[in-house]
Backbone:
């Protein structure tokens, strides 16, 4: 009994340390790298066959096409037009900006715990109905039932408590509202994530493994990612940044290829007082 308590306490302290390190890391990146054309920090998405370009984009938006396509994939289950939408972990704001301009929600709010990332977004996007705010995924600064949809892309792996995060998603969603989610986990942690989603009190409508789509996007985007990083960062930081960006022959890319890491997307709904998925 005592051993279980100690090991749970130890895991929770470790998770909190990991969360604090992620905060430092994202805060540092936002403060140090201010280039306006770097708007995304996800691995991207491409269909497995045929033309990898899923939809027409303006020339400026097409620069980070595959990162946008991950948002398009995640958001494709629900018509967001006219809705009030929240993104948690909005990073450099490209996803929220894409959703607002292309998918036409009434309002789009991005929230991130890195205050310099939020300042970057508030400086760089001037779109009616699009706003960014500092906030933590585990204690969102919004009233209950404020949003029709919540989007979360490649951010949840940083959170010390995914259960607390999912509790917040459910709290800020209106009845019938949707949770649009994508992220990766190690093969071992995927079952933990599935159980957390199952216990969230929201109904799981769809789960899709998109690892091959993410890998195709990373391959097609490899040259651009590598060139941008080489241009932007000092030599001493090059290796770390390439790994962070998932380029070919780095740790996470290899783990996705050999199945040690799995990328999924899901659609959940808050409904009928939050029925549990069977
Ligand atoms: C890999 S980036 C993805 C950003 C964005 N979703 C995208 O696709 O470009 C992860 C983001 O999650 C944010 N984040 C991590 N932990 C967070 C937390 N506990 N609360 C709010 N944001 C968090 C980070 O600051 C970072 O901007």
Residues:
């Amino acid at each position: 009994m005592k051993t279980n308590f100690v090991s749970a306490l130890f895991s929770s302290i470790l998770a909190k340390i990991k969360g604090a390190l992620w905060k430092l890391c994202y805060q540092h990146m936002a403060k140090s790298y201010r280039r306006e054309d770097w708007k995304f920090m996800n691995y991207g998405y491409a269909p497995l066959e045929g033309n990898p370009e899923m939809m027409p984009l303006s020339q400026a938006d097409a620069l980070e096409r595959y990162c946008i396509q991950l948002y398009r994939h995640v958001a494709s289950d629900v018509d967001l037009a006219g809705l009030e939408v929240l993104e948690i972990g909005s990073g450099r704001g490209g996803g929220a900006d894409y959703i607002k301009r292309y998918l036409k929600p009434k309002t789009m709010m991005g929230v991130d715990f890195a205050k310099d990332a939020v300042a970057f977004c508030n400086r760089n996007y001037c779109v009616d109905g699009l706003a960014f705010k500092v906030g933590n995924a585990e204690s969102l600064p919004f009233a209950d039932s404020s949003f029709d949809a919540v989007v979360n892309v490649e951010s949840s792996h940083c959170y010390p408590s995914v259960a607390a995060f999912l509790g917040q998603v459910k709290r800020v969603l209106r009845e019938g509202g949707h949770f649009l989610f994508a992220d990766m986990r190690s093969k071992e942690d995927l079952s933990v994530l599935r159980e957390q989603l199952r216990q969230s009190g929201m109904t799981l409508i769809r789960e899709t493994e998109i690892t091959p789509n993410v890998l195709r996007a990373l391959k097609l985007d490899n040259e651009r990612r590598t060139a941008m990083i080489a241009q932007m960062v000092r030599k001493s930081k090059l290796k770390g940044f390439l790994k962070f960006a998932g380029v070919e022959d780095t740790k996470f890319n290899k783990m996705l290829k050999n199945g040690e890491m799995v990328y999924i997307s899901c659609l959940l709904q808050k409904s009928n007082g939050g029925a549990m998925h069977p």
